[in-house]
Amino acid sequence: MWQVNDKGEREFTGGKQDWNAAVKAAEECSCFREDDEDELVADENISCYNCRYRRWTAKTFICCK
Amino acid sequence: MKILLSIDDTDAMKVEGVEVRGTGELAGMIKQTVEERGWGVCEPITRHQLLIHPDIPYTSHNSSMCFMAEIDADRLDELIAYSSDFLVRESAPEADPGLCVAVIDRLSHPGWLISFGYMAKNYVLTKQEAYDLAETMGIHLSEHGGTGQGIIGALAGAGLRLSGNDGRFKGKIKIKSETGIVTAGLIRATGKVDLVKSLEEGIILEDSDELILGDTVKALLLDGKAVLPVYSIGKDDSGRPRWQTYSKSQMKDF
């Protein structure tokens, strides 16, 4: 689900469309915090895709926690 | 006079011990001040997605926030001064905030500003390019901390709002319904939606048409209008199409 990229950041391997994996990762994470309503993209509220600590990249996102 | 006020890059991922407000919330606070002080009447805020690229510094999603307002011409300088001070005061310490205020009637070539907005969705642009265009067009553009990189997104946000065909409106539209089914007319009566439309089929719903409300009811800026997008979920017993509002995942590409 995660890999370390060449900058040493924790990168989600599921890209931007692996909705189930993003939910599972968020449910297992104690740091999840919902982002502003205008930035929510996943229909499931608890999802890394909706977390304020995710930073979108061209193909996926970085977890900043 | 009619203006566009756009801001970008005001937040930070983490600031220990400090409550960080998002760019949308700050835009909302400026908008509220404009109205409370009687400087003018504002239209709703729109969010505009810009390019995600390794060479572009951004906090988490690289989007800018913009609103249009009809203001008293005598208040323009005051509004710019207030907004500038506000961004210095309220932006996160690590942020690179930028402010753009464009007087629409003074834009001799509005297409140039719109083009800049679309360029910022597809290419890496520089601060110098933003300043050059702003100077040529007589647009106020200023940076208020950090690298000031937010001026690029601020200028782009103004252009995209001016295009009338980009982004989604900030906030959810609140509609009371016990059944979760409402008419398009009821939604339009909130004053926050001009049209209810199936984008796939190009069908504009009649006021009497019913639709199912999803958990997020948000409008898009399309053809200069606030459009609530819906999609078909089959037909009812009488053969009429059934509609439902877009989900968050369906809205994410706008």
Give the H and E element order of chain A: EEHEE
Oligomeric grouping of the chains: heterodimer
Query: What's the number of helices of chain A?
Result: 1
Spatial order of the strands in the main sheet of chain A? Answer: 1-2-4-3
User: By helix and strand content of chain A, what is the structural category?
Assistant: alpha+beta
The topology string of helices and strands of chain B comes to EHEEEHEHHEHEEHEEEEEEH
- What integer is the average pLDDT of chain B? 94
Kindly provide the radius of gyration of chain A, computed on alpha-carbon positions and rounded to a whole number of angstroms: 11 Å
* Number of H/I helices of chain B: 7
Fold and architecture overview:
The complex is a heterodimer of chains A (65) and B (254). Chain A is α+β, with helices and mostly antiparallel strands. Chain A contains one helix and four strands. Chain A has one helix spanning 19-27; strands at residues 2-4, 10-12, 54-56, 61-63. In chain A, a hairpin with a 4-residue loop joins strand 3 and strand 4. The two termini of chain A are 15 Å apart. Chain B is an alpha+beta fold and 254 residues long. Chain B contains seven helices and 14 strands. Chain B has helices at 23-36, 76-90, 110-122, 127-137, 150-163, 184-188, 248-251; strands spanning 2-8, 40-42, 46-49, 63-71, 98-103, 140-143, 168-169, 181-183, 195-198, 203-204, 210-212, 220-222, 225-235, 241-245. Chains A and B meet through strand 3 of A and helix 7 of B.
